[in-house]
Amino acid sequence: MRLFRRKSTAADPPDPRTAWPEQHVPEDAAVAAETFWQGWYDLLPMVSAALGEGEPHRVEHELCQLVEALHPRLHFSLERGRRSIYALVVTGQEDPELRPFTDAWRATAPPDDAIWEYHDSVPPVPDPTEVTVNLGEHRISLADVRVVAQVEDDVVDVAVFHPGFRDLDEAARQTMTFLPLDATLGERLAAERLRRVETAETEPTGAITLLEFRELVRGLGGGTSGNVGAAD
After folding, report:
1. 54-67: per-residue pLDDT in tens?
2. Starting from the edge strand earliest in sequence, which strands make up the sheet with 2-4, in order?
3. Closest CA to 139 of 112, 108, 176
């Protein structure tokens, strides 16, 4: 369960007539990472107290500043951990220009413990079929998502279907086309293996579940090629 995910702390949109201020990018990723972790240790008692009291917004501003000092284009989230209670995720969303910063950040991270684990990309959820996404008045259960996949040279073209898509506007359909794939594969594997992603307007013949899709993609690497399901 994601507690919050924010990159910017601006309360109001900037005046479009005003030039966007230049954001400082550290010259040395390793030094920036060390500075981040020093700040994290200083902030940790406040973070732990805020999370323990169910008020993560109390430390949102401080965490935004900490991550933006590492690199202004990085995103972060505080989430429920898979092995630990909480997880801190700092991600460049697979942007190669940001990889030196996330690599340095992860290399200098403390070992995972019972309370905290650390990820440099958004990890998959343990079971995406147990996730329900609320979009306004709509509740979209990922258990009802079906996909068909075309595998070629260890990359995948995929079409995504959900019976609730017909009730969503275009922006929400786009969100719900990609979100189940990221939840199923995790950010890094999705970036490595997915090529073309489309929204299916009708349920494809022979479609598979998200858990079956995860098994398929994780098994790639041996030159598999062919259809899994066939889109109408």
Report:
1. 999 999 999 999 99
2. 2-4, 75-80, 86-91, 116-119
3. 176
Question: Is residue 119 within 8 Å of residue 87, measured between CB atoms?
Answer: yes
SS (H, E, C) 58-118: HHHHHHHHHHHHHCCCCEEEEEECCCCCEEEEEECCCCCCCHHHHHHHHHCCCCCCCCEEE
* Structure confidence by residue, pLDDT tens digits, 19-32: 545 678 999 999 99
Helix, coil or strand: residue 143? helix
- Please report, for the chain, how many H helices and E strands are present, in that order: 6, 10
CA dihedral 6, 10, 11, 17 (to 10 degrees): -140
pTM of the model: 0.69
Quote the CA–CA distance of 50 and 61 in Å, as a whole number. 12
Number of Cβ within a 10 Å radius of residue 39: 17
Q: Which tokens hold the place of 19?
A: 């030039």
Span 97-154, pLDDT tens digits: 999 999 999 999 999 999 999 999 989 999 999 999 988 889 999 999 999 999 999 9
Q: Nearest-CA neighbor of 204 among 141, 143, 168, 161? A: 161
